[in-house]
């Protein structure tokens, strides 16, 4: 009976190993076309005067014809100069700066989509950076593949310090799971910082985004689209289409954001997402329980070590693949300390998320979504 936990975490080992094997199938997209479709870039933001100028500059230098795209900034009741900064920017030919006619990010995105001049929409966040070929690459992918939803790559900007390294590793593991499930047509998550779809798709599947929850505008849309097996959801692998976002600036904002992410999990109705979430949580819970039990009986420390190794093998493989694809192999030296801390961090965040608190999707400049 002592070794029962080892058996019970085998589902995690098998699921994550399958995701790793799927990652090996990913091929980078090579754009061979010169798309002529009109693109609406939609950005919902609140109190982003610190980051918005950089985003505006990145969009202004895109190598996509200026007549073929527009930028729509939706100001969600900012108390700083976000609205004025966007309104005064002259570097983009087609730019709309509008006030959210409701409250919250989900309503702001709806406002932006409804204001778009044509059918193809790309979502990103105000704290993001992207290269010159970002719009062109996504538009070319859509023109070539015609999916209902495009899930793009998102990474965190590198900073020094263990907290930042820990965030980068965790975020890359989430990106690994996202890519490894999406490449087989069964995605379990996505990130609204780099997401594309048509206006028609959004209007058809955006009726159940759980407006009562401040987070999840991206994942709930994904799950809604995914329910129709005829819909094609695709992962876009391309260095030219990567979006970079900022990490949380301090431990409190980092934990607050993760608590928001976990708090929406109870509303998920996608079976694959539910199974992965439950299997992951059970595995983490067993690690914590075994380590505590080991303080009273050394045999549990041995079992903990076996469970730790069994969990770490697929985790390491996924992160090794992800860090290699993103040119961040140096992060792997932080893998072991992060693995030791991770179970306690997750349990703490779960406990935090069950207590009611006033949360806001725009509280911190952390990457949104997922």
Question: What are its keywords?
Answer:
3-stranded mixed β-sheet; 10 strands; 12% strand; 370 residues; 7-stranded mixed β-sheet; disordered C terminus; single chain; alpha/beta; Spore Coat Polysaccharide Biosynthesis Protein SpsA, Chain A; 2 domains; 13 helices
- As for the CATH topology of the largest domain, it is Spore Coat Polysaccharide Biosynthesis Protein SpsA, Chain A
Number of strands: 10
Beta-strand content estimate: 5-15%
CATH homologous superfamily of the largest domain?
Answer: Spore Coat Polysaccharide Biosynthesis Protein SpsA, Chain A
Which structural class fits the helix and strand makeup? alpha/beta
Mean pLDDT: 91
Short overview:
With 370 residues, the protein is an alpha/beta fold. The chain contains 13 helices and ten strands.
Give a structural overview.
The structure is a single chain. This protein has 370 residues and is of the alpha/beta class. It has 2 domains: 4-21 and 268-353, no CATH class; 27-250, Spore Coat Polysaccharide Biosynthesis Protein SpsA, Chain A (Alpha-Beta Complex). It is 49% helix and 12% strand. It has helices spanning 4-8, 10-23, 52-60, 82-88, 105-115, 134-145, 162-182, 199-205, 217-226, 251-263, 271-294, 298-325, 335-353; strands at 39-45, 69-75, 95-99, 120-124, 128-130, 149-151, 154-156, 195-198, 233-235, 243-245. Strands 3-2-1-4-8-6-9 form a 7-stranded mixed β-sheet, sandwiched between helices. A 3-stranded mixed β-sheet has the order 5-10-7. Helix 4 (82-88) links the parallel strand 2 and strand 3. The longest helix has 28 residues, at 298-325. It is globular, with a radius of gyration of 21 Å. The two termini are 37 Å apart. The model is unreliable at 357-370 (pLDDT under 50).
């Amino acid at each position: 009976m002592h070794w029962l936990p080892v058996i019970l975490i085998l589902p995690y080992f098998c699921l994550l190993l399958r995701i790793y094997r799927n990652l090996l199938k990913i091929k980078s997209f090579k754009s061979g076309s010169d798309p002529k479709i009109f693109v609406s870039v939609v950005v919902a933001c609140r109190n982003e005067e610190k980051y918005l100028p950089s985003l505006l500059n990145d969009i202004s230098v895109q190598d996509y014809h200026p007549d073929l795209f527009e930028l729509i900034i939706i100001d969600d009741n900012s108390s700083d100069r976000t609205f004025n900064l966007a309104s005064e920017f002259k570097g983009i030919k087609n730019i709309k700066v509008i006030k959210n006619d409701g409250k919250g990010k989900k309503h702001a995105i709806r406002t932006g989509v409804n204001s778009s001049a044509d059918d193809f929409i790309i979502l990103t966040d105000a704290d993001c950076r992207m290269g010159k070929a970002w719009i062109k690459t996504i538009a070319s992918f859509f023109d070539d593949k015609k999916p209902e939803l495009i899930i793009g790559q998102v990474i965190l900007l590198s900073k020094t310090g263990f907290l930042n390294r820990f965030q980068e590793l965790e975020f890359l593991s989430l990106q690994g799971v996202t890519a490894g499930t999406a490449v087989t047509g069964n995605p379990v998550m996505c990130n609204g910082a780099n997401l594309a779809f048509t206006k028609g798709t959004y209007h058809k599947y955006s009726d159940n985004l759980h407006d009562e929850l401040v987070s999840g505008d991206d994942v709930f849309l994904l799950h809604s689209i995914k329910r129709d097996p005829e819909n094609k959801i695709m992962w876009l692998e391309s260095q030219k289409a990567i979006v970079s976002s900022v990490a949380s600036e301090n431990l409190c904002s980092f934990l607050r954001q993760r608590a928001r992410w976990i708090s929406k999990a109870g509303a998920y109705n996608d079976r694959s997402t539910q199974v992965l979430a439950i299997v992951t949580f059970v595995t983490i819970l067993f690690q914590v329980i075994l380590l505590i039990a080991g303080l009273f009986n050394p045999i549990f420390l041995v079992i903990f070590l076996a469970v730790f190794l069994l969990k770490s093998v697929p985790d390491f493989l996924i992160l090794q693949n992800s860090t290699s694809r993103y040119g961040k192999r140096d992060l792997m030296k932080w893998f072991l300390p992060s693995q030791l801390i991770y179970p306690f961090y997750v349990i703490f965040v779960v406990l935090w998320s069950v207590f009611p608190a006033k949360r806001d999707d725009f509280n911190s400049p952390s990457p949104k979504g997922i």
